[in-house]
Every structure is written in structure tokens, then in C-alpha cells.
Amino acid sequence: MMLPSGIPLTYPLVFGAILFGMGLYGALTQRNAIRILMCVELMLNAVNVNLVAFAATFWQAAAAGQVFALFVMTVAAAEVALALAIILILARREKHIDIERVHLLRW
Amino acid sequence: MDVTRFAFLALAAVAVVSAFRVVTAPKIMHAALWMGFTFFLVAGLFVVMGAEFLAAAQVLVYVGAVTTIILFGIMLSEAAEVRGGRASVAAAEVPQGSTFWRRHVLPVVATLAFVGIMVAVYTSVPWPPMAGVGGDTVPQIGRALFTTYVVPFELAAVLLLIALIGAIVIAIRDDHREEQGS
Q1: Residue B149, number of CB atoms within 10 A of its CB
Q2: B-contacting residues in A 6-25 (Cβ below 8 Å)
Q3: Which of B5, B89, B166 lies at the smallest CB-CB distance from A6?
Q4: Where do the domains of chain A lie?
Q5: Of A104, B84, B159, B178, whose CB neighbour count within 10 A is largest?
């Protein structure tokens, strides 16, 4: 199974899985809120790689996968703007952004 | 080994290394710069895979906007922990008991299990017949965006507007209330 450009389909898929795994590991282990946000962005990007690979191999005629990847980018941009605003106001109130020590919504 | 395959493998190898540095770089500023570099390499991968439009969008949105926003956020914040970073998990003290499991064992198990399962699925699943034809995808994307996917397209525009307004409302500095010592 090859992409039209001559790359085996498994290359981008395995790369996407590894990139997603990096983001997942970072999001689960880090305590800095901004770094968790960056890891989430990495995961969204890995999903985009998969979408582009599948679109190029199976659905070139409709380009549906690339349109979906475009929507993922839109949502990621909106998400990073809102998340960073929340993190900034958190840093202003608490003087730290360590998610282990944030209790604003818990009690 | 032909050129596109070599280009893909080279870009992917560097991208994996720089994605690893996003997680492990001791300073958060360096991690943000590594993230921008990773996004740039993924844009290169899009070009190699024949998605030029998405590569341009990736450079504009991720490298140009997301990385810049995060860098500005780090620089504008006064909390020492945001700027200094407090390093990666390995540098911090090793916690005991259930916290050790939650922070050091479970993430590794979950990540390795995820990657392993996905690679096993990719290598064993019977794929449907290939239908890709190659060639220029930009006109197809434009046509699909304004015919089949016009409603999600408009909703994405509304979403961006709401996110813009929401970010301003959340992050605006309320000096009046801060003077009262909220």
C-alpha cells in the first residue's frame, strides 16, 4: 500500500503513532500547564498526519481527509488561545501553574 | 531507496527527536521552540505526502500563530515557574507510593501500549483498494470546503470568533478588582 508520492502507507501511520505517543507521555507526566498544552498540540498534529496519509491513499477524489485536518487545525488554534488565557489568569492568581497544586475548582 | 522515501524518513526522524525534546527540555522556552521546529518538520512531511495546501496552513497556523502565542504567553507571564520551567519529571524528586505509579509507571505503560497496539493494527489490517490518484489537491479542497463541508466551515468561523472574544474576556486585566484585593 503506497501513497501516490511513492511512500509506503505504514511510514506516516507509524510516525503519527510515535508522535501521538510522545504527546501522550508528556501530557500524562508533566506538571507544567503550558507544557501539557504543547503536548496536546503535538497529539493533534499526529492525528493530522494520519488524516493526510489516509486522504492521499484512499480518498484523493474528495480530499475529505485534508478538509478534516483543516478543521482540526482550526479547533487547535481556538483551543490554544483559550487555554493560554486560562493559564495566564491562573499564573496571575496563584503565582504558579503547577497543576498538582491547583485547587480552584476542587474545593 | 528513492528520494521521496528518504526525505520522509529523514524529516520523520528529526521530528521524533524534536518532539522528544518538547517533553524533556529543561526550560519551557526551549520546549516551545522545539515544538515550533516539530511543527515545521511536520509541514515538510505534508509536502512530501502531496498535501501542499495543508503544509502552508500548518506553517501559518501552527508555526506562525500557535508557537508565537505560546512564546508570548511564556514571556508575558511573571510567575517564575512559567519562565523557569521546573524541568522534566526526571529532574524532580521521585515520589513514593501511589504517586510514583501514577506519575512514572502508568504513563509509560499507557504510551507503550497505545503505540504498540496502533502499530500492530497498521501492520495486520487488510486495507481497502487504493483510490488515490495524486496530482493537485488544492482545487479539490476548495471545492469540498464550499460545497460538501460548507456548514462545518461556517461553524469553524463562528468557533474562531467565539474563541477570540472568550480569550479576550478571560485574560483581560481587571485592574479595578485587583486593587480591592480579590
Answers
A1: 21
A2: 6-15, 17-25
A3: B5
A4: 10-101
A5: B159
Interface probe for B, chosen from A10, A52, A99 (most Cβ of B below 10 Å), is: A52
CB contact under 8 A, A77 and B163: yes
Neighbouring CB atoms inside 10 A of B17's CB total 13
Residue A74 to residue B54: CA distance in whole angstroms:
12
HEC assignment per residue over chain A: CECCCCCECHHHHHHHHHHHHHHHHHHHHCCEHHHHHHHHHHHHHHHHHHHHHHHHHHCCCCCHHHHHHHHHHHHHHHHHHHHHHHHHHHHHHHCCCEHHHCCCCCC
Closest CA to B143 of A101, A46, A55, A62: A62
**A99 inside 8 A of chain B by CB:** no
- Determine contact: A72 vs chain B, CB below 8 A: no
Asked if CATH classification 1.10.287.3510 holds for the domain at A10-101, the reply, yes or no, is yes
B166:A31 CB<8 A? no
Query: Distance between CA atoms of A6 and A2, rounded to whole angstroms?
Result: 6
Tell me the average confidence (pLDDT) per consecutive run of 10 residues in chain B, 182 residues long.
Answer: 89 95 90 95 93 92 92 78 51 66 86 94 85 75 90 94 92 64 46
The pLDDT of residue A51 is above 70:
yes
Give the chain B residue whose CA is nearest to the CA of A93: B182
pLDDT for position B89: 44
Which residues in chain A touch residue B69, judged by CB atoms under 8 angstroms apart? 80-81, 84
Distance separating alpha carbons of residues A33 and B94, to the nearest angstrom: 20
Q: Taking a C-beta distance cutoff of 8 angstroms, is the pair A63, A55 a contact?
A: yes
